[in-house]
Target: CDT1 Geminin-binding domain-containing protein
Amino acid sequence: MKRFMNSAIFYEYYLWTFRQLTTLQSERNYTAIKLIGLTSPTKRLKDPDCIKVPSSPSLLHRSILMSPGKTQGTPLPYVSPRKLFTEASPTKSFERYSHLSSKEKSSLVLPYKYRTLAETFRAIDAVVSMMFNRNETIFFSKLKISVQQMSKKNLTETHLSQILTIYPTAFEFKQEKLRQGPGQAPKYELSIKPLLDKTNGDSCEEKSESSLMTPSIILERRRKMYDALLNLTKDHHQEFLKTLDPPMSLDKNKVTRWHPEFEVDSVPDIVPSLLPLPPNLEKFSTAKDVLNKARDIFMCNPRMASALEKNSSLPQAQYTTPAAASIPALTSALKGIPKSLLEKVRAKQAAKAASMLTRNPEAVKRRIEYSRLREIARIVRNTFIAEKKTVLPKSLLLDKLSSSYREILTPNDMTHHLDLLMESSPDWITTINNRGEIYLKILRELDLSVIHENIDKLINQI
Model:
């Protein structure tokens, strides 16, 4: 009996404790819900002391079970999505880097050896930028391995010497002393450091990025290298023009294409500059010093000494062109022709070549388009005669032109040429818009030779 009473008392005590805990938990939940502000959205927005609903279920569960006496953390400030998108708008980025795509494309082609050097410079600059941004000392041995893996071509010090000649402000070359053990002779290795032009950097960049090679700086350096190679090719082209008969004098900045007789790939190689040498090696300033040193080394071999003497006595090679070499043969072949007539023909050829070299690529393209209009006008007239009508749909006429013209042109190009024909001869072809469909009407009484004369006048005006 006593044992049963003890168990009943314990059971009542357990029920009383469970009721107390349940009441306390319900009060905490009610207080938390009131703090969250689920009663009214308007009140939640107006009340500054109201706590916002957490963004995740775990934070919501934590806020409900948290004691009301504990203070909540300060909520993060609200940022408008529109403000986030307007601060880094793609339009502003396009305007920021618009200078990279504003330069017009030129029809001038670089020689193969110059294009190869430009690709090598691009690979070198890419590897150097990665090492430089890591604050790593760039040695030629490490640079050579990385560049060869990237470009699949050999890299030698001659390439660096040519880059130093054509673009001297690109890199700084030094001989760095390597760490050696005690008793070992000092060793030096060539190190490369890019020279950054801070005036070309972006004005919107942060101060921490001013000492890094950003993509905009790499693109600007690549453009400078290409311009330097192009200017060097233009200089060789100017030398070639002086060797013609009669010689031509043009502004190299106005040249838009090379002379037909100018062999682009036969231009001389870029003269390599002298890279820094280690202090323990003997420096040679002239070719005579090199020959004297070689003579001292190979003095034991008389054949080698005589070969060096012959090489030192040879005259220096001069820049000659095929046109200059063929002048004596032309003079012997043109015997008997009056000199005044030859001078007139040569002057006419020189003027024609000068106009071809300085012609705008857009003008050349427009001239080619106008030259096609004569045949297109003939096909248009024959189509109207074959159909026995004076009005035809424009779509039908375009199909006939595409199937009858000798060249293969896209529908957009054929439409463009037909519009040019309508602009050149507005009295011959007129446009009629009927219920959303375009029709073309021609004047049959007008002779086709008049249309050809108008086209020829437009071609001569270019």
